[in-house]
Specification:
Layout lengths: L10 E3 L9 E3 L11 H15 L3 E4 L6 H8 L4 E5 L3 H14 L4 E4 L3 H6 L5 E6 L8 H10 L3 E12 L11 E9 L2 E8 L1
Parallel strand pairs: 3-4, 3-6, 4-5, 6-7
Antiparallel strand pairs: 1-2, 7-9, 8-9
Amino acid sequence: MAKAKTSNSPTVRIIGGQWRGRKLSFPDLADLRPTPDRVRETLFNWLQPYIGGARCLDAFAGSGVLGFEAASRGAESVELLELDAAAIKSLRSNQQLLKAANCQVFAKEALAFIANTSQTYDVVFIDPPYRANLWHDITHLLEKQNCLLPHSVIYLECPAKAELPDVPENWTLIKDKSAGEVRYCLFARQ
Protein backbone atom coordinates (compact mmCIF):
# COMPACT_ATOMS: atom_id res chain seq x y z
CA MET A 1 0.00 0.00 0.00
CA ALA A 2 1.31 3.46 -0.90
CA LYS A 3 2.34 5.74 1.92
CA ALA A 4 0.28 8.84 2.49
CA LYS A 5 2.02 12.17 2.20
CA THR A 6 3.32 13.34 5.52
CA SER A 7 4.66 16.62 6.76
CA ASN A 8 8.11 15.01 6.38
CA SER A 9 7.75 14.78 2.59
CA PRO A 10 10.14 17.13 0.81
CA THR A 11 8.46 20.09 -0.85
CA VAL A 12 9.29 22.60 -3.52
CA ARG A 13 7.43 25.80 -4.25
CA ILE A 14 6.39 27.33 -7.53
CA ILE A 15 8.00 30.76 -7.71
CA GLY A 16 5.98 32.54 -10.41
CA GLY A 17 2.78 32.71 -12.41
CA GLN A 18 -0.75 31.67 -11.50
CA TRP A 19 0.39 29.07 -8.93
CA ARG A 20 3.05 31.27 -7.35
CA GLY A 21 3.78 30.22 -3.77
CA ARG A 22 2.08 26.82 -4.06
CA LYS A 23 4.08 24.05 -2.43
CA LEU A 24 4.36 20.66 -4.08
CA SER A 25 5.31 17.49 -2.22
CA PHE A 26 7.50 14.89 -3.86
CA PRO A 27 9.03 11.57 -2.78
CA ASP A 28 12.44 11.47 -1.13
CA LEU A 29 14.35 9.53 -3.80
CA ALA A 30 18.13 9.26 -4.23
CA ASP A 31 18.35 10.67 -7.78
CA LEU A 32 15.54 13.21 -7.43
CA ARG A 33 17.03 16.68 -6.94
CA PRO A 34 14.63 19.49 -7.82
CA THR A 35 16.14 22.51 -9.51
CA PRO A 36 16.81 25.04 -6.72
CA ASP A 37 14.66 28.19 -6.42
CA ARG A 38 17.41 30.63 -7.39
CA VAL A 39 18.31 28.56 -10.47
CA ARG A 40 14.64 28.35 -11.49
CA GLU A 41 14.18 32.07 -11.01
CA THR A 42 17.10 32.77 -13.35
CA LEU A 43 15.97 30.11 -15.81
CA PHE A 44 12.43 31.45 -16.08
CA ASN A 45 13.75 35.00 -16.47
CA TRP A 46 15.71 33.64 -19.45
CA LEU A 47 12.60 31.84 -20.74
CA GLN A 48 10.21 34.77 -20.35
CA PRO A 49 10.22 35.61 -24.11
CA TYR A 50 9.57 31.94 -25.00
CA ILE A 51 7.26 30.40 -22.38
CA GLY A 52 3.89 32.07 -23.07
CA GLY A 53 1.87 29.74 -25.30
CA ALA A 54 4.75 27.27 -25.58
CA ARG A 55 4.49 23.52 -25.96
CA CYS A 56 6.97 22.12 -23.39
CA LEU A 57 8.60 18.78 -22.65
CA ASP A 58 10.01 18.02 -19.19
CA ALA A 59 12.03 14.95 -20.19
CA PHE A 60 13.07 13.88 -16.68
CA ALA A 61 10.29 15.35 -14.56
CA GLY A 62 11.19 14.07 -11.07
CA SER A 63 9.40 16.50 -8.75
CA GLY A 64 7.79 18.16 -11.79
CA VAL A 65 8.79 21.62 -10.64
CA LEU A 66 10.19 22.72 -14.02
CA GLY A 67 7.11 21.56 -15.91
CA PHE A 68 4.61 22.92 -13.38
CA GLU A 69 6.51 26.22 -13.23
CA ALA A 70 6.30 26.47 -17.04
CA ALA A 71 2.55 25.75 -16.92
CA SER A 72 2.10 28.29 -14.13
CA ARG A 73 3.79 30.93 -16.29
CA GLY A 74 1.59 30.46 -19.34
CA ALA A 75 2.86 27.45 -21.31
CA GLU A 76 0.09 26.10 -23.53
CA SER A 77 0.95 22.51 -22.72
CA VAL A 78 3.53 20.58 -20.73
CA GLU A 79 4.34 16.89 -21.04
CA LEU A 80 6.13 15.47 -17.99
CA LEU A 81 8.02 12.18 -18.39
CA GLU A 82 8.98 10.02 -15.42
CA LEU A 83 9.80 6.37 -14.74
CA ASP A 84 9.75 6.07 -10.94
CA ALA A 85 6.34 4.89 -9.67
CA ALA A 86 6.43 7.02 -6.50
CA ALA A 87 7.42 10.12 -8.48
CA ILE A 88 4.66 9.45 -11.05
CA LYS A 89 2.08 9.17 -8.28
CA SER A 90 3.31 12.45 -6.80
CA LEU A 91 3.26 14.19 -10.21
CA ARG A 92 -0.32 13.10 -10.81
CA SER A 93 -1.34 14.18 -7.32
CA ASN A 94 0.24 17.62 -7.83
CA GLN A 95 -1.38 17.89 -11.27
CA GLN A 96 -4.77 17.34 -9.61
CA LEU A 97 -3.95 19.69 -6.72
CA LEU A 98 -3.13 22.49 -9.16
CA LYS A 99 -5.96 21.56 -11.54
CA ALA A 100 -3.25 21.69 -14.21
CA ALA A 101 -5.30 20.76 -17.27
CA ASN A 102 -2.44 21.90 -19.51
CA CYS A 103 -0.09 19.26 -18.02
CA GLN A 104 0.10 15.57 -18.92
CA VAL A 105 2.12 13.03 -16.95
CA PHE A 106 3.54 10.05 -18.84
CA ALA A 107 5.00 6.98 -17.15
CA LYS A 108 7.64 6.71 -19.86
CA GLU A 109 11.39 6.64 -20.20
CA ALA A 110 12.50 9.80 -22.03
CA LEU A 111 14.48 8.14 -24.84
CA ALA A 112 11.66 5.69 -25.62
CA PHE A 113 9.06 8.46 -25.54
CA ILE A 114 11.04 10.72 -27.88
CA ALA A 115 11.82 7.84 -30.25
CA ASN A 116 8.07 7.23 -30.66
CA THR A 117 6.51 10.69 -30.66
CA SER A 118 5.54 12.91 -33.55
CA GLN A 119 5.13 15.96 -31.29
CA THR A 120 7.25 19.08 -31.59
CA TYR A 121 8.24 21.35 -28.71
CA ASP A 122 9.07 25.00 -28.26
CA VAL A 123 10.83 24.46 -24.92
CA VAL A 124 12.53 21.29 -23.65
CA PHE A 125 13.87 20.74 -20.12
CA ILE A 126 16.72 18.21 -19.84
CA ASP A 127 17.79 17.46 -16.27
CA PRO A 128 18.48 13.70 -16.11
CA PRO A 129 19.91 11.83 -13.14
CA TYR A 130 23.58 12.77 -13.34
CA ARG A 131 24.92 9.23 -13.02
CA ALA A 132 22.81 8.12 -16.02
CA ASN A 133 24.89 10.35 -18.33
CA LEU A 134 22.06 10.73 -20.88
CA TRP A 135 22.73 14.28 -22.17
CA HIS A 136 24.30 13.26 -25.50
CA ASP A 137 21.71 10.58 -26.26
CA ILE A 138 18.67 12.71 -25.45
CA THR A 139 19.87 15.87 -27.19
CA HIS A 140 20.80 14.08 -30.40
CA LEU A 141 17.60 12.01 -30.40
CA LEU A 142 15.50 15.20 -30.15
CA GLU A 143 17.14 16.32 -33.39
CA LYS A 144 16.97 12.94 -35.11
CA GLN A 145 13.24 12.57 -34.35
CA ASN A 146 12.43 16.17 -35.45
CA CYS A 147 10.95 17.02 -32.05
CA LEU A 148 12.21 20.59 -32.16
CA LEU A 149 11.05 23.64 -34.06
CA PRO A 150 13.35 26.19 -35.73
CA HIS A 151 12.87 28.54 -32.75
CA SER A 152 13.05 25.92 -29.96
CA VAL A 153 15.04 26.57 -26.80
CA ILE A 154 16.50 23.80 -24.67
CA TYR A 155 17.37 23.97 -20.97
CA LEU A 156 20.13 21.63 -19.88
CA GLU A 157 21.27 21.01 -16.30
CA CYS A 158 24.44 19.10 -15.44
CA PRO A 159 27.11 18.89 -12.71
CA ALA A 160 28.97 22.18 -12.27
CA LYS A 161 32.40 20.56 -12.40
CA ALA A 162 31.74 18.55 -15.56
CA GLU A 163 32.48 19.56 -19.12
CA LEU A 164 29.48 20.81 -21.05
CA PRO A 165 27.78 17.77 -22.59
CA ASP A 166 28.05 17.18 -26.33
CA VAL A 167 24.97 18.69 -28.01
CA PRO A 168 23.94 18.92 -31.67
CA GLU A 169 26.01 21.32 -33.79
CA ASN A 170 23.00 23.49 -34.63
CA TRP A 171 22.41 24.35 -30.94
CA THR A 172 23.91 27.64 -29.81
CA LEU A 173 24.66 28.23 -26.15
CA ILE A 174 22.90 31.50 -25.23
CA LYS A 175 23.01 31.38 -21.40
CA ASP A 176 25.35 29.52 -19.05
CA LYS A 177 25.64 29.80 -15.26
CA SER A 178 26.64 27.75 -12.24
CA ALA A 179 25.21 27.70 -8.73
CA GLY A 180 26.78 25.39 -6.17
CA GLU A 181 26.92 21.90 -7.66
CA VAL A 182 24.73 22.78 -10.65
CA ARG A 183 25.61 24.09 -14.11
CA TYR A 184 22.59 25.26 -16.06
CA CYS A 185 22.47 26.31 -19.67
CA LEU A 186 20.02 27.50 -22.26
CA PHE A 187 20.52 26.62 -25.91
CA ALA A 188 18.76 28.04 -28.95
CA ARG A 189 18.27 25.86 -31.98
CA GLN A 190 19.62 27.46 -35.16
